[in-house]
Amino acid sequence: MKTLKTIFLAICLSLVTAVTGYSQNHYQPTPENLEARRQFVNDRFGIFLHWGIYASYAQGEWYLNQGHLNKDEYAHAASAFYPAGYNAGEWVKAFKDAGAEYVTITSRHHDGFSMFDSKASDYNIVKATPWGKDVMKDLAEACRKEGMSLHFYYSILDWIREDFPLGESGHMTGRKGDHPDYDHYLAFMKDQVKELMTQYAPVRALWFDGYWDHKRDSIPFNWKMPEFYEYIHSVDPACLIGNNHHIQPIEGEDFQMFERDLPGQNTAGYSEGQMVSDKLPLEMCQTMNHTWGYSVSDRDYKTSEQLIATLAKAVSLNTNLLLNIGPRADGRLPDPALALLKEIGQWMRLNSKSIKGCGPGPIAEQDWGVTTAPLAGGKTFYLHVLKNPGAVLEIPVARKSRIKSVAALADGSALPFKKVGANLFITLPAGLPAQDYVISVTMR
Asked: What phi-psi label fits residue 331: left (phi over 0), alpha (psi between -120 and 50 degrees) or beta?
């Protein structure tokens, strides 16, 4: 009886492993990986770039699918792709001046086109375009020069390859779809991510997308992510892995991400039932306008006030902000995006102390805003006034707390305050700026 029970349990375990890819060998991050996580958390602000041959159509990154184009017709964009205005140094300097500490760029999107020099696929920017140059090499060099970390977005979904099993999207691209071979496709992905990690080292993180394409399969699709992740960590144990799958973290992942929403929210509809990890670093991605890739008709950009408020709210929830820009086909960043980067940078130069290296403050979100505090500890925390409360700001504090000083972080000017019981009353200057007004509060 005991033998039968043992056999039964072994069969159950093998079935679970087959469907989920999990095994009993639980992932243990290395000290180098944990250090990379710490640096990632301290950075707090990164720039996301969705750039590919889809920029030539100027209709967003999903144009191959949404425009119902045949993959061969779509590929004509590659033969005309010539980003003569591309200057990686200018890009990275603009990001650095805005206060960002890392860049995440699409190495390959769902259209299957590789924006890097790849031996695993000739359908890439070096071999398939008249440009013939490796833009990722230039970007990696610029990041190293400016001290910015480089992350790569990589789509695990492909709308053109015959070995990728057809999912929910990419049905009109001209694929036959009658000979899927996911093991072959997984081997291809391993080859490409190894190229990314070795050709452009150091690569601090890989950002995966497309898992949701098989979310509604009648038989659960086995992406074999733990196997994929184990391979990545064998190439570089310090490389961080995240996946935009909209579900709970999978074994082998090093940070959890949220699309267009702060952790715990679901205004965009992608995070339903997604619990927030209390063990992994967190990151939310958001666009400056609406589309991720460049769209000539999408001129509805958010204001710098809105984006700075999102950054402050993210940090107050122990979360990074990955802010997206869609570069144009000519290699230039859109003028509205550059203007926003400049405005964010002006604010960050005065207030980054309340963002970088910070996490949740001692006070939960209030009508007027949020609080942050240094992750290293100390006696100072920061009030981010996102909505004008009037002449006096009232905040709850511990009844026995003793306040040493209250000041505007931007210029250090002291602000009058009075503590009464469990409340702190701060007199605010007239004419608060529209952008986040940050106040530093130091305890005795």
From this structure: left
Q: Left, alpha or beta for 61 (phi > 0: left; psi -120 to 50: alpha)?
A: alpha
Domain assignments of the chain as residue spans, ordered by start: 28-356, 361-443
CA dist., res. 210 & res. 192, Å (int): 16
Give the β-pairing of 358-360 and 417-420: unpaired
Phi-psi region of 257 (alpha: psi -120 to 50; beta: other; left: phi over 0): beta
Domain 361-443 has CATH 2.60.40.1180: yes
Q: Model-level pTM greater than 0.70? A: yes
The Cα–Cα gap between 8 and 439 comes to 62
The tens digit of pLDDT for each residue in 32-75 reads 999 999 999 999 999 999 999 999 999 999 999 999 999 999 99
Nearest to 320 by CA among 97, 48, 96, 43: 43
- Residue 271 CB-half CA count within 13 A: 18
| Element counts in the chain: helices (H) and strands (E) | 11, 16
CATH code of 28-356, in short, is 3.20.20.80
pLDDT, tens only, 237-264: 999 999 999 999 999 999 999 999 999 9
